[in-house]
Amino acid sequence: MSQKKRLNIIIKGIVQGVGFRPFIYKLSIKLDLKGIVINSGSGVIVEVEGNKYNLQSFLLKIHEEKPVISKIDIIKVITLEPVGYPTFEIKNSINDKKNVTVPPDLATCQDCLEEISDPNNRRYLYPFTNCTNCGSRYSIILGLPYDRSQTSINKFTMCKFCKEEYKDSLGKRFHSQVNFCPYCGPELKLLNNKGQILSYSLEALRQCINELKAGKIIAIKGLGGFQFITNARNINSVNKLRKYKNRPAKPFALMYSSLEAIRTDCQISLLEKELLISPQAPIVLLKRKTNNSLNCNIAPNNPYLGVMLSSTSLHYLLLKELNFPLIVTSGNINSEPICIEEGEAIQSLGPIADSFLVHDLPIIRPIDDSVVRIIQGRKAFIRCARGYAPISLMMNKQLYSNYKKFINIPNVLAVGSHTKNTVAILKNNQIFVSQHIGELSTLKTFESFKNTINSLKALYQFKPQIIVCDKHPDYVSSHFAKAQKLPLGKVQHHYAHVLSCMLDNQLKPPVLGIAWDGTGYGNDSTIWGGEFILVLNNYYERIAHFHPFKLPGGDKAIKDSKRSALGMLYEISNFKDNLELSFLKEFSKQELSLLQQMLSLNINTFLTTSVGRLFDGVAAILGICYENTFEGQSSMMLEHATISSETEDSYTYTIREKKYPYIVDWKPIIKEIIQDLLSKVPYGEISVKFHNTLAEIIVDIAKISQIKNILLTGGCFQNKYLTERVIFRLEQENLVPFFHKHIPSNDGGIALGQIIAEIIHK
């Protein structure tokens, strides 16, 4: 009997645009195997034949030696009789069903950075250098399978040198779809803020460097869209950028030339270092050193800095000639998507930018920088975009085998939430979650939202059969969903939070979800945000929540933390008992009288159980933050106050346990906080005690529920101290805590939860 066999192998996951076919080719040659490898719309198809022992080794090494930036979700292997392949070849792609994961954009690799630093290399100082292992992917792709002809690079024809590299099976650009060089690739040009050309190529680069040294603000066309960049050590530049972007306090992200440069201003742990130098190169929140040389206006009253290394060859070349870090922030007007087209950028950003550094490589879709931080010893997303998006998650059949609906899942489009919007699609048991889109409060962001949906539909030949949206009466996404004339599912916001965390951790019911955030429309027409949600096989139940309080002025209270504090005081006492509190003095007598009338007469007030608003109120009572000039500012500053103190103490609270839902009464907490404040207890100690109390509340409700698996989800769990304290206390009580792995705990995960709700509960 012949020892030779043939294997037909289908590999799905992130296996296109990451050097997977060249890897399979080289591995086959090494093991003396014959056959073919093909990109298809559903993944990579391999036909390989040879000695059965070599084939066994081949299968093993696919997992052990695959490209670092690849990800295998599914591998199917069928054993067949050999057909006599003479060689091993990379064949042209086939255009079958579309279900492959689109590769994300990746930062320039070290090999390419060395090339552009080498005067003897033809790519010396070329700002668009990339290879099989790095560069643009998702931002330039037009269709699947991933081939040059299906990207915006197809406008550039490879020169003879690049063609030779493309065919060289031993080179790093073997079958690289994004291969080009100074002779055949994109070109830089520098424009003034009226759009007039000032210079080209290396001269444009040099002139831009000189303008940065002079403190100018440059709008640069980056990997996923335009960015503003300027000297982070120039106070005038920083202040000008803050003024024109209407961003008085929100921290700016910084880009440094090296790890050594970052260490002059920040502390870097081993895990943080790995994230900084990873192919994804996200913005990482780092603890700033007390003796850092940056002016405080980069991140006012903030012990953390958002820091990254260069994400493209262009950024690397700029920083190489500068002895200061750059502010790098999205090139947009507040609340709008980042610009991706030159004309649009000049019109929108011209009043802010002194010059524009642009190029002629079309960007198909806008992508912001990803933002992460280390919580409990691992990566936690604040924003998921460049380097990670789109996210692909497989539906585990074993987890959902009890649900009849799972047997025949329809194509589902989930349109996410109103803020921090992402969208998601479900096709063939696979979920694809888009990049961060933003807040759907402007026409341009809504257009970006629709474009992202259309882009996913086109990439995956996806036709939705059902649309799901947030259960909210006036969300833009809800109106969009209704307009599609398809069956419409509405999912309660906090339930979606819990389900997203459940799938993110590959869990199945029963679970207890702790869903804490700023705002979410509740089933009782009030504003939820301090929820304890029990998920069982056939239903979910809100088993507990925080005692509701009134927000005077409704949406105005989201930005005005003092109003949250006022609503809380209204629940516990007459204002006259607490006139010594500093935040009350921030109101005029007329304004305070009006707000008191609104509360007492219940005019233009909304009830809320939100822990996010509770954070706002405590921050205002302490005088730490009176106004949220950006989302979560008060909560962030209250978290930062914990750094200065250590205590195991907590405050008093009660849980009313007559029947579900139990009510967590926070009023004793606020009374004791006020007592501590008036007794001159340090803010830091009060903040730690407040956080500790929230953790104790979770432990108590978890014990009452008698559920083992506890899920932490919602924007409040971006708080490092709170999340780590809760995990510590739950583990002490022999409970099993989970928080998000692949998606943010904030509203960026809502679309994923909406899809799971459509599958398991109606």
From TrEMBL:
Pathway: Protein modification; [NiFe] hydrogenase maturation. It is an enzyme of class 6 (ligase). Residues 6-92 form the Acylphosphatase-like domain. Its EC number is 6.2.-.-. Keywords: Hydrolase, Ligase, Metal-binding, Zinc, Zinc-finger. It catalyses: an acyl phosphate + H2O = a carboxylate + phosphate + H(+); C-terminal L-cysteinyl-[HypE protein] + carbamoyl phosphate + ATP + H2O = C-terminal S-carboxamide-L-cysteinyl-[HypE protein] + AMP + phosphate + diphosphate + H(+). InterPro entries: Acylphosphatase-like_dom, Acylphosphatase-like_dom_sf, Acylphosphatase_CS, ATPase_NBD, Carbamoyltrans_HypF-like, Carbamoyltransferase_HypF, DHBP_synth_RibB-like_a/b_dom, HypF_C. The active site is at R21, N39. Residues 202-387 form the YrdC-like domain. Belongs to the carbamoyltransferase HypF family. This is Carbamoyltransferase. It comes from cyanobacterium endosymbiont of Braarudosphaera bigelowii. The lineage of its organism: Bacteria, Bacillati, Cyanobacteriota, Cyanophyceae, Oscillatoriophycideae.
